[in-house]
Amino acid sequence: MSRELSLNINIKEPRWDQGTFMGRAKHFFMVTDPRNVLLSSETLEEAKVIVENYRAGVVKPGLTEDELWRAKYVYDSAFHPDTGEKMFVIGRMSAQVPMNMSITGCMLTFYRTTPAVVFWQWVNQSFNAVVNYTNRSGDAPITVNQLGAAYVSATTGAVVTALGLKSLAKRLPPIVSRFVPFAAVAAANCINIPFMRQRELKYGIPVTDENGNRLGESASAAQQAIVQVVVSRIGMAVPAMAIPPVIMNALEKRAFMKRFPILNAPVQVGLVGLCLVFATPLCCALFPQKSSMSVSHLEADLQERIRQASPHTTTVYFNKGL
Q1: DSSP-derived secondary structure for 94-158
Q2: Where are the transmembrane segments (predicted)?
Q3: Would residue 1 count as lying in a domain?
Q4: Phi-psi region of 62 (alpha: psi -120 to 50; beta: other; left: phi over 0)
Q5: Helix or strand holding residue 206 (H, E)
Q6: Domain count, the chain
Q7: Which of 115, 129, 246, 91 is nearest to 182 (CA)?
Q8: Confidence class of residue 139 from pLDDT cuts 50, 70 and 90?
Q9: Are 234 and 256 members of one domain?
Q10: Are residues 275 and 240 in the same domain?
């Protein structure tokens, strides 16, 4: 007979050591696996039941440790860590590679005309707005008006930035023009993410002690979380938007590409996808998902409440979002 699975496995934390870059990379390769997007609702719900039952001390008969971890990562790929709600499919991190390879490939291909720049920057920032909202930190609700204002501000700022950079690039060599989409995306991320998560900056995000006990909400923690996410997102874009333009600039001079210009877009999309398969999890791994901050760096009133409620706590933890 098979032995029943131990209840001592801590599936609240990732399977690999998050104190090391390699451990975080292994974790995010699982979380961002594009194959998770194809999983059915039944598979997601089954994983949710396995995970929630295990946390409650109920083990499915015959369940192995590998199956438990697989269910945990399927669950993590589709359900928000703070609210527990099922995330919108294109906002999940597992959708990053297929969605971004299509959008970024088109941005890099159709960059020569102003209407094309406006359209693809709008598509990209609309997608980013969905991702930023879906992967926000905290469990406080956001109103439709707040969401609408944030979306309009973010996408308008991003499109204006792209057009400004395109105008500047007209006086520069053609190869430089190919990098306008990257510069626009990098600048837009600095606008889009804070706007879509502005509620966190105003009201704070939940902070806990090392045992997961909630201690309050901190805007300082939200600032650190958003800065880390902006850096990670820009890092994700670097290989996908910097390497393909150089390769395509060389390929387009070849007789084969001149004879079949229709191949430009699919080749560009393929190159972007290859870069993103590795860049997405590796850049997510730059910072721990469960970020930390010294109590002394929190707001004065929150510091005082923590000193009274938990005098031995010197460090707080929070979900930085993605």
Answers
A1: GGHHHHHHHHHHHHHHS-SSHHHHHHHHHHHHHHHHHHHHHT-SSS----HHHHHHHHHHHHHHH
A2: 175-195, 225-247, 267-287
A3: no
A4: left
A5: strand 205-208
A6: 2
A7: 246
A8: low
A9: yes
A10: yes
pLDDT digits (tens, 9 = 90+) for 176-225: 666 776 777 777 777 777 877 778 888 888 888 888 888 888 889 999 99
Separation in Å, CA 77 to CA 90, 96, 170, 300: 11, 11, 42, 36
Whether residues 78 and 209 fall in one domain: no
269, amino acid identity = V
Both tokens of 198, joined, read 């502005």
Of 56, 86, 116, the residue at which a domain comes to its end is 86
Percent of the chain's residues with pLDDT above 90: 4
Residue 143 shares a structural domain with residue 232 = yes
Angle between helices 96-109 and 180-196 (to 10 degrees): 140
Q: Kindly report, residue by residue over 152-178, the tens digit of the pLDDT.
A: 877 787 778 777 877 776 776 766 666
Residue 144 belongs to some domain of the structure: yes
Q: How many helices (H) and strands (E) does the chain have?
A: 13, 4
Do 306 and 213 reside in the same domain of the chain? yes
- Rounded Cα distance between 317 and 221, Å, is 9
Contacts (Cβ under 8 Å, ≥6 apart) of 249: 174, 175, 178
- Answer yes or no: is 2 within a domain: no
**Domain end point (choices 38, 62, 86):** 86
Cα–Cα distance, 272 to 207 (Å, whole number): 37
The dihedral of CA 55, 280, 91, 188: what is its sign?
positive
Q: Which structural domain, as residue segments, surrounds residue 63?
A: 21-86
